[in-house]
Amino acid sequence: MGQRVKISDVPFASVIAAVMGVISISVFAGTMYEALKIFTVYIFEDLFHYRLSWLETIQDTFLIIAITMALYVVFLLVFGVLVTGATRRHVYGGMSCIMGGQTSAIFLMVLTYICHIIWILIISACIIPILLYVMFIELCNQHVFNKKAEDIKFCMDLSNFGIFSNSSQKIVGGLTTTPLCSPTNLRRMCTRTEESGQLFIVAYIGAFCASLAMAHFMTILAANYTRMKLSKELTDYRNAVEMTS
């Protein structure tokens, strides 16, 4: 019987959502950080000699968001433990505690909804590098891959993508940029593009799963709010019975 009570005190829904959230956020953070590093350092800086400082800012921003979200998921798990089974009866036993628990649940629902919206925006943003990956890798398949070095007559000019002007050289951030024509560098670029593109896809999946975890937590918080509301009504009823008896 004691073992059953312990099992009933485990917030399985919160645990599942937390595990899914932490894993998906960790996958997103790791793959997105590495993909942007490959894109900015190994492709643009090493090959095109072009520094994308704003992408580095986005890289750090995504990392900060991921760490914050992971900590928030852990906090939601702790809250789920406090409002489950016998723990709820001990922590939220009094009327003021129940009211505080209801207020906390409402606040966390709103905050979780905002986090859910943020992940939807991140998912939308992840589509952009995936589309770029599809375009770049298609060019690589046509002009670079499965070809000998002497047969490669292709030059990668990023001005075709609206990144540079139509001039052959341009000083950007103090660095000279030129079209990429060397077969060796083209192969390096295509290999790095393939690596970063796959990581972007995994990051997209991670962001999608993180969004599902937030939606799961919203459902859990709504259920916890209902439980505490019922606890308040039962407490009011019990107090009324005691006063009349």
From TrEMBL:
Keyword hit for Isomerase: no
Q: Does the keyword Phosphoprotein apply?
A: no
> GO:BP terms for this protein?
neuron projection development
Signal peptide per UniProt: none
Give the domain of life: Eukaryota
Alphabetic keyword roster = Membrane, Transmembrane, Transmembrane helix
* Residues passing through the membrane, by range: 12-33, 62-84, 105-136, 201-223
List the record's Gene Ontology CC terms alphabetically. Answer: plasma membrane
| Pfam families linked | Myelin_PLP (PF01275)
The protein's name is: Membrane glycoprotein M6-a-like
User: Can you name the source organism?
Assistant: Octopus vulgaris (Common octopus)
